[in-house]
Specification:
CATH class of the largest domain: Mainly Beta
Strand order of the largest sheet: 1-3-12-10-5-8-7
Number of helices: 5
Mean pLDDT: 89
Number of domains: 2
Largest sheet: 7 strands, mixed
Bound molecules: calcium ion
């Protein structure tokens, strides 16, 4: 209990001291909660800061299985960031904490060792709080702050190697362009209002969708996932790799495909008949209604059924950008 109090006091003192000497505003830190992890995990937080500012991020232990020694390495872009100081947390007594010299460039090592202990340390929570400064000329962007534990230096009271999952963090400097899904081919339409993506092709594979039709505005910061076959109703999500959060979600529309298999053919015609007769209904929302509207009036009715018949008979094709049909007999 005494140890914890002492460490907490030290952190507060370190904070007071740091705020006292720096006139700049500290960036805001965010990090996950224990509920996010079920395995032994060490996480480094994320923060937002402006160029020239300093910010703090914690290193946090979750689900500690019991150790007497652990060593982690923090990596960052030394041309933009300097590690100014590291304050020990409440995880282990200050006497057991051995940190690299600061200020420091990347990588920076922190270890905690209680080799003479006859029992495992099972503490969780803040292991250390790191203070970084951002270069005055740092360009806006999202920059990874990597965390790894050092294999061979992390073990329990029986000197058995203990392994952890590690979660890296990031610092967002300034106001970088938001991550977005962009069209590669100029046929592609990203409809932000209705959250639809169309202007594709029938029978597309996931591989071709991601290599020829849609991509990420900054592929170093995110990636795209799709919920199933490239057909109407498939959900495309943009994942921000620095936070692992969903940054945007859209539904695919393949005009003429209301079965969702990505092809407009006789099956869609069979499905459309009772819908036009109003004895069956399309799923709620704009996605399938858009796919079934081949006349551009926002409704699925008898005119569209006529167009669908001609498509199924391979007399007319569908322009996947406009959703309108065209003659293919000539
Ligand atoms: Ca279909
Ligand atoms: Ca229509």
């Amino acid at each position: 209990m005494k140890m914890k109090l002492k460490s907490k006091k030290l952190i507060s003192l370190a904070l007071v001291f740091a705020i006292g000497v720096c006139s700049v505003i500290f960036g805001t830190s965010v990090f996950g909660s224990a509920a996010d992890y079920s395995d032994p995990t060490i996480e480094i937080g994320s923060a937002h800061a402006e160029a020239g500012e300093t910010f703090e991020i914690p290193i946090v232990m979750y689900n500690n299985p019991g150790i007497v020694a652990v060593c982690v390495s923090v990596t960052f872009d030394s041309s933009l960031l300097t590690l100014e100081s590291a304050a020990n947390g409440s995880f282990m007594d200050d006497a057991r904490a051995i940190f690299g010299k600061a200020p420091s460039s990347s990588p920076y090592k922190l270890s905690w060792e209680d080799g003479l202990s006859t029992t495992n340390n099972v503490n969780n929570g803040t292991m250390a709080v790191l203070t970084f400064s951002v270069d005055e000329n740092a360009p806006s962007g999202v920059y990874e702050i990597g965390l790894s534990y050092v294999v061979g230096s992390t073990f329990d009271v029986d000197l058995t190697e203990v392994s952890f999952d590690t979660v890296s963090g990031s610092v967002t400097i300034g106001s970088p362009e938001p991550l977005s899904i962009v069209g590669i081919k100029n046929t592609v339409v990203i409809d932000e209002e209705n959250k639809l993506i169309y202007g594709l092709e029938q029978g597309l594979t996931e591989e071709r969708l991601f290599s020829e039709f849609i991509g990420v505005s900054d592929s170093g910061r995110g990636h795209i996932e799709i919920s199933g076959a490239v057909g109407t109703g498939a959900e495309v999500t943009l994942i921000d790799d620095t936070t692992n959060d969903e940054a945007a979600a859209y539904n695919i529309v393949i005009f003429g495909d209301i079965t969702g298999n990505g092809i407009a053919d006789g099956e869609d015609l069979i499905k459309m008949k009772p819908i036009v007769a109003q004895t069956a209904f399309l799923p709620e929302g704009v996605v399938f209604k858009t796919a079934g509207d081949l006349t551009g009036d926002g409704k699925v009715e008898s005119d569209d059924l006529l167009q669908m018949k001609a498509v199924a008979a391979q007399i007319r094709g569908i322009d996947q950008t406009t959703g309108l049909t065209f003659d293919i007999t000539t």
